[in-house]
Structures are given as structure tokens and as C-alpha cells.
Amino acid sequence: MTQSQLAKRLGITRSSVNAWEMGISVPTTQYLVELSLIFQVSTDYLLGLDKKATLDISGLTPKDMDVLYPLVQHLRSLNQEKEE
Fold first, then answer.
1. 17 exposed, middle or buried (CB, 10 Å; 0-12, 13-18, 19+)?
2. Distances (CA, A) of 61 to 37, 55, 64, 65, 71
3. Residues 51-69: pLDDT tens digits?
């Protein structure tokens, strides 16, 4: 999503979104909540308080999840190997 697209969804200017990204200003509480809904993450995640991201798996079948869980474990193990 571009800054312009996000700004349009929030009803603000692109320069406001740019200022958030540059660390010049921070979004208000209202915009933090709206951002969390748009990006489907918690406000704690946006604030850097929670390092865990969530993934919305609604609409997936049990078969889909049987494929997804081993994939997640595989990716975690690859990342752990890179860190070592």
C-alpha cells in the first residue's frame, strides 16, 4: 500500500503518513486504532511493545492449516539456523 493510498483510507494527507514513517510525528490514538484495523495487527505491535505478529487464518480449511503449520515451523527453523 502506498502512502497516498493509506492517507486516502484514513482521510489525511500523504505528507502526514510520510511524517509518521520518517519519525517526524506520530499518529494519534485514533489513527493507531485505525491502522491496527487496516493492517490487522494489534496496537501494541504498532507501538513496538509486542514483537509477535498475528496472521488471520479465518476462511482456511483444516487441510489448509495442515499445510500452513509445518511451513511456519520450517521457516522458523531456517531463521534459527541463520542466527546461529
1. buried
2. 24, 15, 5, 6, 15
3. 777 778 889 999 999 999 9
